[in-house]
Amino acid sequence: MKTITADKIKKIIAQLCVKANLELRSDVLVMLKKARNTESSKRAKKLLGAIIDNANVARAEQLAICQDTGMPVVFLEVGQDVRISGSLQQAVNKGVELGYKKAWARGKSTYSPVVVHVDIVPGSKLKMTVLPKGFGCENKSLLKMFSPTAKIEEIKGFIIDAVKAAGPDACPPYVLGVGIGGTADFASLLAKKALLRKIGTRSSKIEADLLKAINKLDIGPMGLGGKTTALAVNIETYPTHIAGLPVALNFSCHALRSATATL
Amino acid sequence: MNDKQIKALKIFDEIKLSGVIYTARDQAHKRLVEAINSGKKLPIDLKGAIIYYCGPTAAPKGKVIGSCGPTTSNRMDKFTPVLLKAGLKVMIGKGGRSKEVIAAIKKYKAVYLLAYAGCGALINKYIKKAKVAAYKDLGPEAIFRLEVKDFPLIVGIDSQGRNIYD
């Protein structure tokens, strides 16, 4: 049995909040640079350049990547052989308060209580992830309960239509997290978790097809046209009931921020 | 910005703005419109004013303001026609606007400009001075008076009612 103190967890959570808000994820930065190189529209190239510059300025000058420092969503994977001394819930909330102060977050706003998702896993490690979720994009999230006999084309259509409807409002280029299966609530959680997976790494045929279709919509960076409407589509799946097929979609703006540490 | 300058702007034009602008987002809009509707004196002069839809983060040491990019404009749509009638001339934000707002922009010969969305750290560089002008109790949603230099913007809706997203 390994013991981890609540105080240690608080400190790590605080550090993760700072890191996530000031340093854009490296996989996102790589995909932004790739997109800038493949864009043919001059304006789209320039806007992607501004987004990349923004990430560099944020890191160098310790400014939040976006003034919307998000609603912090914390994911914990707790090994079943870990014992936590002190209150885990308090440690997470206090860690977020401490971290957000250091990340120069919006003045008087309060950032706790946060949304926490806990998974109990085998082993004796504690994995902590902080995802500061901006609400311009969170507001575009959708859930649809499909019939179990729905065709894949219907599900693709639902996702593509949602991107069309979001248009320029939620800061494209987007990263789309999709959750298929489980229950209504669980599919929504899967969609959010899908945003944590590194983008541009592994990609199924459905993900690749969707990305291609979305990037033909000509929404582009800031909604002003171009080939880069989304940087990635990440789908997570789970078995479900024979009478249903939940599909949830979680939008991320181009500032997809998260940071992880393991004790 | 004077009327002649506003009239000369066309959608897709890229400009660099220098001068005084005021931030205002959801709660400040609500209060301004309530004040106008009840005939109270406004805390800022709206005649010819420029409003930036922005709620900045706190200023780190050595900086006048924190991260300060635009927020989604359409949440302000229900308040905007009243402010335009009261003299507001220029709005800065991100994303599209409602039909009613586009019609009001045309009617009052105003203009809507787009700032680089999701680039709050970069935009910090163009803000030279910042101080709270009204509604201090709103924290980041207070009205800030900003002095900006060479703030890069794109014309989103021009005074003739043309919309970049059409």
Please, could you describe this protein's structure?
Chain A has 8 helices and 10 strands. Chain A is an alpha/beta fold. Chain A has a 4-stranded mixed beta sheet with strand order 4-2-5-10. The longest helix of chain A has 20 residues. The radius of gyration of chain A is 19 Å and the shape is globular. The model of chain A has no long low-confidence stretch (mean pLDDT 95). By secondary structure, chain B is of the alpha/beta class. Chain B has a single domain, classed as Fe-S hydro-lyase, tartrate dehydratase beta-type, catalytic domain (fumarase). Chain B is built from 5 helices and 6 strands, in the order H-E-H-E-H-E-H-E-H-E-E. A 5-stranded mixed beta barrel of chain B has the order 1-2-3-4-6. Chain B is globular and about 45 Å long.
Which keywords apply here?
heterodimer, A: 263 residues, alpha/beta, 2 domains, four-stranded mixed beta sheet, 8 helices, B: 166 residues, fumarase, five-stranded mixed β-barrel
Give the SSE layout:
The complex is a heterodimer of chains A (263) and B (166).
Chain A: E1 2-5, H1 6-22, H2 26-38, H3 42-61, E2 71-79, E3 82-85, H4 88-102, E4 115-121, E5 126-133, H5 135-138, E6 142-146, H6 152-166, E7 174-182, H7 184-194, H8 205-214, E8 230-240, E9 245-252, E10 259-262
Parallel strand pairs in A: 1-3, 2-4, 7-8
Antiparallel strand pairs in A: 2-5, 5-10, 6-9, 7-9
Chain B: H1 3-8, E1 14-23, H2 26-37, E2 50-52, H3 80-85, E3 90-93, H4 99-107, E4 111-115, H5 120-123, E5 127-134, E6 143-157
Parallel strand pairs in B: 1-2, 2-3, 3-4
Antiparallel strand pairs in B: 1-6, 4-6, 5-6
